[in-house]
Amino acid sequence: MSDVAFSQLPLPPAQLANLERLGYREMTPIQAAALPLALAGQDLIAQAKTGSGKTAAFALPLLCKLNPRDFGAQALVLCPTRELATQVAAEIRRLARYQANIKLLTLCGGQSIGPQIGSLEHGAHVIVGTPGRIRDHLRKQTLSLARVNTLVLDEADRMLEMGFLEDISQIIEATPGNRQTLLFSATYPEDIQQLSRRFQSSAAQKIQVASQHSAQQINQAFFICQHGTKREALLQLIAHYQPEQAVIFCNTREAVREVSRVLSEVHGATLALYGDLEQRERDQVLVQFRQRSARLLVATDVAARGLDIDDLPVVINFDLPRDAEQYVHRIGRTGRAGKSGQALSLFTDRERYRLDAIAEYQAREVGFDAVQSLQPTDARLPPPAFVTLAIAAGRRNKIRPGDILGALTRAGGIDGKAVGRIDVLDFAAYVAVERGKARHALRQLQEGKIKGRKFKVRQLRFALPSEERRLQPLR
Q: By CB atoms within 10 Å of each CB, which of 124, 181, 197, 225 scores lowest?
């Protein structure tokens, strides 16, 4: 954190009060550097990594410029993946609470375009989405960007790596030339500089800050194993370290499917996140993990882009990534906010060159042990503390977290201490309940009402990747 308080910024008093309620007090380095310039209307090209606080660095300026009475799209935020877009949209909604009637839409692929078109007919002040789907709407003329005054390119380097340059170019050309353009990128290669020169003001300000999540507070351990025994080595790591929660990274979708299947057989409660999942399935996977109703999540890098879990204690690399910077990005999901974290990595002799690249990138010596050096154990992980209940209603039904909490706790029902995180999405809501109270809570929600109305409620279970695309209620 910096020593600069948000109260020193020229923000509306209602927003400052909202920031205080949300726990925003001192700015992070990227916020302290970017916000005064962005609030003054300048174009920015900012080099900052995930977790540095960059969402607030662009969300606060764009919110200040909104005209609530104009339901045309006034701000557009482009993100490389659906997961990051969902995360960014959720944070902008929190920051927008100080204003009434601000409407935000998330437009991403992987979900039906029909409901999105219907929502756009009612207008929106802020659009957050992925380049491919935004371009689809432009092609169908269901979205107009003629009134956009703020354009944000979030994780621009990743969007270019994913081949979105043509989509981004056509989208930007559909926006007014006098817009403010805020470009955020973890790296600053030549193609990012070209993008800036092409679409930003010549007076664009360049900002570079160190990552909030250096690897200094992360304990890194590497274990060599034979290629044919990698799955057994992973089981040994998990049994030895007994993580409260862990994200296990694989380099391919096929590896994610296989590893999650093996872990499910041994430890149960294992989630898988990879590129072919539909948006509803992705939402449910991420919600269950955030709500701590699963201990293990196996994912690819692209699918996990934007994955932001509070207090994640352990990251495991089943496969070392193909480049060292991606390794640092992976392990940066643990050890956040000054807390310690654990990064465990498996590699085979043929992957030793990747270990050398990681050591060189971090400018530090990297040692390793054999998996056999760990004390042998077949201990299984205990079941997760929470169970997730899914409610077939969300923001579009005017449902709020307080409504769900009230439905559970009223009339001598569930103790509020047994209720964990509540996530309300557009068309669904999810609530975590302590495992021992889950059946009681499920029955209470099924038999009772939320905000005077009855909705379908079910308990989520874990679907193995081989189970085709459907999360069914427990029997």
A: 197
The neighbouring-strand residues paired with 275 are: none
pLDDT in tens, 175-206: 999 999 999 988 777 888 888 999 998 889 99
E strands along 93-175, which residues? 104-107, 126-129, 150-153
Single out the residue of 445, 474, 439, 443 nearest to residue 460, CA to CA.
474
User: Using CA atoms, how far apart are residues 450 and 434, in angstroms rounded to an integer?
Assistant: 20
Cα torsion 214, 219, 223, 227: sign: negative
Gap between the Cα atoms of 158 and 314, Å rounded:
24
Closest by alpha carbon to 248, among 155, 328, 320, 306? 320
- Map residue 273 onto helix, strand or coil: strand
> pLDDT tens digit string along 61-93?
999 999 999 999 999 999 998 888 988 999 999
List the structure tokens of 467: 């189970």
Helical H segments across 40-125, by residue range? 54-64, 82-95, 113-121
Counting every residue written for the chain, the total comes to: 475
In three-state secondary structure terms, 364 is: coil
Which pTM value belongs to this model? 0.67
Instruction: Residue 169: count other Cβ atoms within 10 Å of its Cβ.
Output: 15
Beta bridge partners of 459: 389
Question: Which whole-number Å values give the CA distances from 121 to 105, 137, 142, in the listed order?
Answer: 11, 12, 8
3-state secondary structure of 412: coil
Distance CA(301)–CA(304), nearest Å, equals 5
Check if the beta carbon of residue 364 is closer than 8 Å to that of residue 358: no
Residue whose C-alpha is closest to residue 146's, from 106, 109, 180, 176:
176
Q: How many CB atoms lie within 10 A of CB 205?
A: 16
Helix (H) or strand (E) holding 219: strand 218-224
- What is d(CA 204, CA 470) in angstroms, rounded to the nearest whole number? 47
